[in-house]
């Protein structure tokens, strides 16, 4: 089992930046791929980005520009940095982990709310 705990969400003004963190604990061998999904109001969860234990990132096409995923294996932690935040970035951001990403990730965090508002 893997436990994922996100932090770093909150209220941010448009144009600002934010870094989300997710720390994994438990069966770390099941966290070879970690990443982030998000769910905007009224929509399904969508993949933002993933990163392997070898630090290879992969971004969904819509998130190539302002989103940066990174990882510190020694801390079992993955980060998501979001620049130039927009109103439409308001969402619950979920951390995910699995041995590989071939479908729905096996492990999910509880989610952290990001609200972009002036």
3D structure, described in words:
The protein starts with a strand and ends with a strand. With 118 residues, it is mostly beta strands. A hairpin with a 6-residue loop joins strand 4 and strand 5. Helices cover 0% and strands 53% of the residues. The model has no long low-confidence stretch (mean pLDDT 96). Strands 2, 4, 5, 6, 9, 10 and 11 form a 7-stranded mixed sheet that branches. The chain has a 4-stranded antiparallel sheet with strand order 1-3-8-7, with no helix packed on it.
Give a topology summary.
Elements: E1 2-7, E2 10-12, E3 18-26, E4 33-39, E5 46-52, E6 57-59, E7 67-72, E8 77-82, E9 91-98, E10 107-108, E11 112-116
Parallel strand pairs: 2-11
Antiparallel strand pairs: 1-3, 3-8, 4-5, 4-9, 5-6, 7-8, 9-10, 9-11
Features:
118 residues, mainly beta, 7-stranded mixed beta sheet
What is this structure, in a nutshell?
With 118 residues, the protein is mainly beta. It is built from no helices and eleven strands.
Uncertain regions spanning at least 5 consecutive residues: none
Query: Treating each run of at least 4 consecutive H or I residues as one helix, how many helices?
Result: 0
- Taken in chain order, the helices and strands follow as EEEEEEEEEEE
Helix content: under 10%
Structural class: mainly beta
Q: Tell me, what's the shape?
A: globular
Rg calc: 13 Å
| Oligomeric state of this protein | single chain
Number of strands: 11
Please report the distance between the alpha carbons of the first and last residues.
Answer: 40 Å
Mean pLDDT: 96
Strand content: over 45%
| Biggest beta-sheet profile | 7 strands, mixed
């Amino acid at each position: 089992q893997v436990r994922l705990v996100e932090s770093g969400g909150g209220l941010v003004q448009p144009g600002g930046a934010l870094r989300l963190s997710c720390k994994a604990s438990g069966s770390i061998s099941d966290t070879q791929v970690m990443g982030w999904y998000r769910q905007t109001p009224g929509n399904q969860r969508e993949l933002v980005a993933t990163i392997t234990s070898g630090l290879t990132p992969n971004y969904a096409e819509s998130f190539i520009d302002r989103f940066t995923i990174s990882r510190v294996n020694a801390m079992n932690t993955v980060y998501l940095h979001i620049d130039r935040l927009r109103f439409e970035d308001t969402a619950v951001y979920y951390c995910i982990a699995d041995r590989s990403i071939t479908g729905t990730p096996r492990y999910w965090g509880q989610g952290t709310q990001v609200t972009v508002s002036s």
